[in-house]
From TrEMBL:
Naturally occurring in which organism (per UniProt): Arthrobacter silviterrae
Matches recorded under InterPro entries: GrpE, GrpE_CC, GrpE_head
Cross-referenced SUPFAM superfamilies: Coiled-coil domain of nucleotide exchange factor GrpE (SSF58014), Head domain of nucleotide exchange factor GrpE (SSF51064)
Keywords for this protein: Chaperone, Coiled coil, Cytoplasm, Stress response
Coiled coil regions, renumbered to chain: 57-84
Oligomer and partners: Homodimer.
Protein name per the record: Protein GrpE
Homology family: Belongs to the GrpE family.
Compartment(s) where it occurs, according to its Swiss-Prot or TrEMBL record: Cytoplasm
Keyword check for Disulfide bond: no
Function: Participates actively in the response to hyperosmotic and heat shock by preventing the aggregation of stress-denatured proteins, in association with DnaK and GrpE. It is the nucleotide exchange factor for DnaK and may function as a thermosensor. Unfolded proteins bind initially to DnaJ; upon interaction with the DnaJ-bound protein, DnaK hydrolyzes its bound ATP, resulting in the formation of a stable complex. GrpE releases ADP from DnaK; ATP binding to DnaK triggers the release of the substrate protein, thus completing the reaction cycle.
Length: 198
């Protein structure tokens, strides 16, 4: 049996003491190192924290904190964006409804004129007019109270003033054209005659 020679030292090597690495036979890691690696792998799979070098852990912690801050910042930006989109959508919806209501005010004026002349008192046209007013009411359209109420320049437009002994404050005595509002928004002021104290 031939002895192996260590090429670096030029001395014979006992194969039982120190294995020699050859191209076809790499030296195996010591059993202790393999056992440590296997136990660490098992610990990681079982969810047990394996201590790392302090510098690596510190760098990873800083990266994690920075990523968490970025995530929180992005989350806040997304929440603000979503609120802004919802608010803009609600405003756009309200403006669309107000546009439709404004376009139908002349039709309501014609209905009021027909009632005043006795043309729309009963029958199918009266029923259609009532349905139209009810449908517009579901979208928030309200007629501004006018007759017999104190004059309010925010909702009334005074066309004529008449002195009267029956009133102590400026009071709406007659409505010439109905006014309408949607919620708190005045779509059109009511054109009125105002009775003023003598």
């Amino acid at each position: 049996m031939s002895e192996s020679v260590n090429p670096e030292e030029g001395k014979p090597v006992d194969p039982a003491v120190e294995p020699v690495e050859t191209p076809g036979n790499p030296v195996a890691e010591p059993v202790e190192t393999q056992g440590d690696a296997l136990s660490q792998a098992e610990d990681i799979l079982n969810g047990v924290e394996v201590p790392a070098e302090e510098s690596v852990a510190k760098g990873a912690g800083e990266d994690a904190a920075e990523l968490k801050n970025d995530l929180l910042r992005l989350q806040a930006e997304y929440v603000n964006y979503r609120k802004r989109v919802e608010r803009d959508r609600a405003v756009a919806g309200q403006m669309a409804v107000i546009g439709v209501l404004n376009s139908l005010l002349p039709v309501l004026d014609d209905v009021d004129a027909g009632r005043a002349h006795g043309d729309i008192v009963d029958g199918p046209f009266a029923a259609i007019a009532t349905k139209l007013e009810t449908a517009l009411g579901t979208y928030g359209l309200e007629k501004i109270d006018a007759t017999g109420v104190p004059f309010d320049p925010t909702v009334h437009e005074a066309l004529i003033q008449q002195p009267s002994a029956d009133v102590e404050v400026d009071t709406v005595s007659q409505v010439l054209r109905n006014g309408y509002k949607s919620g708190e928004r005045v779509l059109r002021a009511a054109q009125v005659i105002v009775a003023v104290p003598e």
